Amino acid sequence: MSDSSKVDVLAVGAHPDDVEITCGGTVRKLIENGHKVAILDLTKGEKGSRGTLAIRKREAESAAEVLGIARRINLGLPDAFVENNRENRLKLVVLLRKLRPQLLIIPHSRQRHPDHRRSSELLYDSCHLSGLEKIKTGDLKPHRPFKILYSTSFLEVEPSFMVDITSQMDIKLRAVACYESQFHPDPKKPVVYPPANDIFDFIKTDAHRFGYKTGVQYCEPFVQNELFLIDDPLTLPVRSI
Ligand SMILES: [Zn+2]
User: Fold this and answer.
1) What is the pLDDT of residues 85-106, one digit of tens each?
2) Ligand 1 centroid vs 2 CA: distance in angstroms?
């Protein structure tokens, strides 16, 4: 990969469709704000109850096109068996050093799906290792993202802040709708979580719940582990009383 493979933002999900559901609006907003954004899917979702590998690949490509992302990469780890091990950490170190993102959006560790939970720790650990000079990866120089944000949409986790995605909601829903094999109601197929025929309701209701609390229509929640530092408290958004 050349310098042109560098990105400002890398949004990561365990499975194709995770990024769209949890932070697709924010990804789109970052692009509209002029940042170069890539999506990394750690697995191809081959153990999912619905769809085939070929269908899921096509759907992920269509969703990437709808969002307008610069690149979509698949690490090809085994679906349902994502492990935070040395081999996978080193794969991610190489990728992080090639892409050199300043912002990484990754799944929060408190998750129902084991792949999501383990992906969170795998990605955090890889970011740390990627900054260590004595871990050699050929010509690739050490790199750590400046900021790691955790997407939290699947479970009740106290968010640190919200991103207003009111203007991006339509595109987010269109991107999620690309995953027709996953979210098209089919009574003959096993139930997935969130329930397939409720996914759009789930996304809108959840985003609206957070929007209601912050004075806009739709929001996506995020956690950051650091404290906020600001210059001028008078510029803080969201009315108190
Ligand atoms: Zn997932």
Assistant:
1) 999 999 999 999 999 999 999 9
2) 30
